C-alpha cells in the first residue's frame, strides 16, 4: 500500500505543467489579462474559469471554455477607386481553442473605392530656417494630405522632409583670464568725511579672446575690481569753527546794552589727535532798543444823550421813565509792550433823566436812624444815615414848573408797592437826591447788602429804586433748595438772578435753572435782572459774556431782561441794576394796561 502511493505521487509530479503567470480577470474585448496573482502552474490557475494566464509567447489566454470574440470592424477597401475587397476578423479564446474550429476567423466582402477625385498631397511648404546659426544644422518642410479619412492611402510617403543646412564657421566668444593680485591701498588712513582708500585688481578678456571674423562676443562683467581698505586707521582731524550763533538777549530791557554770540569748534570737531580751533569762541555786540511806554487813561468823554433803555431811538423827557446814558475813555500812548492801563472800566453807564424845563420844589424829610457799623470792629469801621428829598406835591405827573431846580425827580405817579421775589440776597439802597432849601445835599449813596449770606436759606429784605420800595424774598442757590423756588416766585413782579461771573464752568448749570424758572407758567413775561457778581475779581466774565452764556436771547420775546455787572464787596452796579429792573416792571405794567384798554 505504501509503495502504490509513492508511485502515484511520482506520476502526478511527472505530468504537472510548467508554471505560468496567473491573473484574476481575462478581458475578452482586448484579449488581455488584469489583476496579477503570481506564478503558479496552469491547472491551478484555471481552477477558476474567470481567471487568465500568460503564455510563453506573451499572449494572454482565458481559463474559461472556448469562445469566439465579436467581429472586428470592416477594414478599408483594398482599392482607392473601383472594385475591391474589405475584411473583418474574430478570435477564439479559452482552453482547448480547437473547439472553435467550426467557425470562420476571417470574413471578406466586395467593396468599391471612392477616392477617385484626384485627392492627395498638397504642395510642399517653404523650407524652415536653419536650426543653428553656425555649424551643422537642419531645416524642414511639410505638406498636408487633403484626402478623406477613408482615402488616406491616396497620400503615400512622408508628410515632412528634413535637409541638412549649409555649414558656417561659428565665432569664438571671449573668456576672462584669472584675476591678478590686489594693488597697494591708495592712502594710509581713512578720512573723517568718509574718503576710504581703495585697492584694485584686474583681469583681461583673453581666455580665449573673441574672434574677429566672424565677430565673437566680448566678456561680460567688469575688468577691474575695487575694494575699500577698511582696515586702515582713521586720519587725524583738525577742528573747524562753526557759524556764529544769532545774538542772545540784550543785557538791558531797553536802552543800550550788549548781546553775546558764540560758535563751536565742531565743523569738523577735533578727532583722532587733531588740533583744536584757533581764536575765541564768543564775541559781543552792542544792542539798542527803545523802552516801552505804559498806557494812560484819556479823559472821560461827555455823557451821551439820555435814551430809553428798550427803545434807544426815543429820548427821555419829564413824562417818560428814566433812561440810561454812557461815556467812554481810552487807553492812550501805550507802545512797545508797555503796561496796559489799570483794570478800570472803559465805559460807564448811569440812569439819567431829561429834566430840562422840569422844576419841582422839594423839601428834606427827616434823617433815618444810623446804620450798623461796617465792619463791626476795627479802625476803619463806619456807619451812615440817609435823608430823603421829597417833592412838595402829591401828583407826580403835575406839569407845574418851579423857578428853581431843587430836585430832579422822575414823575412816576403815586407810589404803589412793587413785589419782587428772587433767589438773591435782599438789597436795600436809595437814589441820591438834590435839595437846596432845607440843608445840604445828601452825597450819592450806593446800594448796600443787608441780611444774611446770599446762599444760605431764606432771606427777607427790601430795596428801593426811584424812591419806591422793592420788598423781596431771597432763596439760596443750593441744589437742595431749588425745588422751593417755585413757591416764592408766584405772582411776582420781577426776578433777580445772581450768577458767579468768576466761575464760567457753572454757567451751563445756571442757564438751565434760569430758563426753567423763566419758562414756568406762573413766570411767563416776568422781567428778569441778571446780576453778574464778582466783577472785582480778575478774569471775571463781563456782563455781555454772561448774557450770551445764559442764552437770554432764547427767552420769550415778551420777557424783558437785563444783565448787570456788579460786586457784592462794594455794591458797585447793584443800584443801577435795580433801577433798570424797576423800569422794566413799569414798562410791563404800561404794556398790560394798554392791552386792557383795547
From TrEMBL:
It holds the Pfam family TSP_1. The keyword Signal applies. The keyword Disulfide bond applies. Residues 1-19 form the signal peptide. One of its GO terms (molecular function) is GTP binding. It comes from the Eukaryota. GTP binds at residues 477, 533-536. Keywords: Disulfide bond, GTP-binding, Nucleotide-binding, Repeat, Signal. This is Uncharacterized protein.
Amino acid at each position: 500500500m505504501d509503495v502504490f502511493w509513492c508511485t502515484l505521487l511520482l506520476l502526478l509530479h511527472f505530468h504537472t505543467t510548467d508554471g505560468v503567470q496567473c491573473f484574476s480577470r481575462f478581458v475578452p474585448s482586448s484579449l488581455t489579462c488584469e489583476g496579477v496573482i503570481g506564478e503558479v502552474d496552469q491547472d491551478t490557475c484555471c481552477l477558476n474559469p474567470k481567471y487568465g494566464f500568460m503564455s510563453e509567447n506573451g499572449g494572454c489566454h482565458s481559463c474559461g471554455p472556448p469562445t469566439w470574440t465579436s467581429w472586428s470592424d470592416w477594414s478599408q477597401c483594398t482599392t482607392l477607386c473601383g472594385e475591391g475587397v474589405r475584411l473583418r476578423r474574430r478570435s477564439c479564446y479559452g482552453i482547448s481553442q480547437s473547439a472553435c474550429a467550426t467557425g470562420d476567423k476571417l470574413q471578406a466582402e466586395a467593396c468599391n473605392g471612392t477616392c477617385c477625385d484626384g485627392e492627395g498631397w498638397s504642395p510642399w511648404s517653404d523650407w524652415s530656417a536653419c536650426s543653428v546659426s553656425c555649424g551643422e544644422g537642419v531645416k524642414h518642410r511639410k505638406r498636408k494630405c487633403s484626402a478623406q479619412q477613408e482615402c488616406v492611402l491616396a497620400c503615400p510617403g512622408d508628410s515632412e522632409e528634413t535637409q541638412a543646412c549649409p555649414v558656417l564657421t561659428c565665432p569664438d566668444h571671449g573668456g576672462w583670464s584669472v584675476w591678478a593680485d590686489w594693488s597697494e591701498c591708495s592712502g594710509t588712513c581713512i578720512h573723517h568725511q568718509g574718503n576710504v582708500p581703495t585697492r584694485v585688481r584686474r583681469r583681461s578678456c583673453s581666455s580665449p579672446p573673441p574672434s574677429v571674423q566672424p565677430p565673437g562676443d566680448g566678456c561680460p562683467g567688469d575688468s577691474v575690481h575695487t575694494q575699500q581698505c577698511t582696515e586702515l586707521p582713521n586720519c587725524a582731524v583738525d577742528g573747524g569753527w562753526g557759524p556764529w550763533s544769532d545774538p542772545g538777549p540784550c543785557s538791558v530791557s531797553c536802552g543800550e546794552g550788549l548781546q553775546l554770540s558764540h560758535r563751536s569748534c565742531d565743523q569738523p570737531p577735533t578727532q583722532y589727535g587733531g588740533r583744536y580751533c584757533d581764536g575765541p569762541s564768543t564775541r559781543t555786540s552792542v544792542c539798542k532798543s527803545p523802552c516801552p511806554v505804559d498806557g494812560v487813561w484819556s479823559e472821560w468823554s461827555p455823557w451821551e444823550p439820555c435814551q430809553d433803555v428798550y427803545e434807544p431811538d426815543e429820548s427821555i423827557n419829564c413824562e417818560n421813565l428814566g433812561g440810561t446814558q454812557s461815556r467812554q475813555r481810552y487807553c492812550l500812548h501805550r507802545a512797545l509792550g508797555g503796561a496796559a492801563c489799570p483794570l478800570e472800566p472803559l465805559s460807564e453807564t448811569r440812569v439819567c433823566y431829561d429834566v430840562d424845563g422840569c422844576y419841582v420844589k422839594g423839601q428834606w424829610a427827616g434823617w433815618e436812624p444810623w446804620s450798623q457799623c461796617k465792619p463791626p470792629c476795627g479802625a476803619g469801621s463806619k456807619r451812615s444815615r440817609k435823608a430823603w428829598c421829597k417833592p412838595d406835591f402829591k401828583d407826580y405827573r403835575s406839569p407845574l414848573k418851579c423857578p428853581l431846580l431843587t430836585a430832579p425827580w422822575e414823575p412816576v405817579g403815586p407810589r404803589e408797592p412793587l413785589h419782587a421775589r428772587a433767589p438773591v440776597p435782599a438789597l436795600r439802597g436809595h437814589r441820591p437826591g438834590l435839595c437846596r432849601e432845607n440843608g445840604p445835599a445828601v452825597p450819592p449813596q450806593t446800594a448796600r447788602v443787608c441780611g444774611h449770606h446770599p446762599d444760605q436759606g431764606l432771606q427777607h429784605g427790601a430795596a428801593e429804586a426811584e424812591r419806591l420800595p422793592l420788598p423781596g424774598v431771597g432763596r439760596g442757590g443750593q441744589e437742595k433748595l431749588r425745588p422751593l423756588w417755585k413757591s416764592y416766585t408766584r405772582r411776582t413782579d420781577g426776578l433777580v438772578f445772581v450768577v458767579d461771573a468768576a466761575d464760567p464752568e457753572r454757567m451751563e448749570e445756571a442757564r438751565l435753572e434760569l430758563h426753567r424758572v423763566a419758562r414756568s407758567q406762573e413766570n411767563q413775561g416776568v422781567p428778569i435782572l441778571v446780576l453778574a457778581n464778582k466783577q472785582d475779581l480778575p478774569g471775571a466774565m463781563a456782563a455781555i459774556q454772561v448774557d450770551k452764556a445764559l442764552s437770554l436771547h432764547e427767552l420769550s420775546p415778551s420777557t424783558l431782561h437785563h444783565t448787570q455787572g456788579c460786586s457784592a464787596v462794594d455794591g458797585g452796579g447793584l443800584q443801577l441794576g435795580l433801577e433798570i429792573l424797576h423800569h422794566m416792571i413799569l414798562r410791563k405794567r404800561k404794556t398790560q394796561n394798554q392791552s386792557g384798554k383795547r
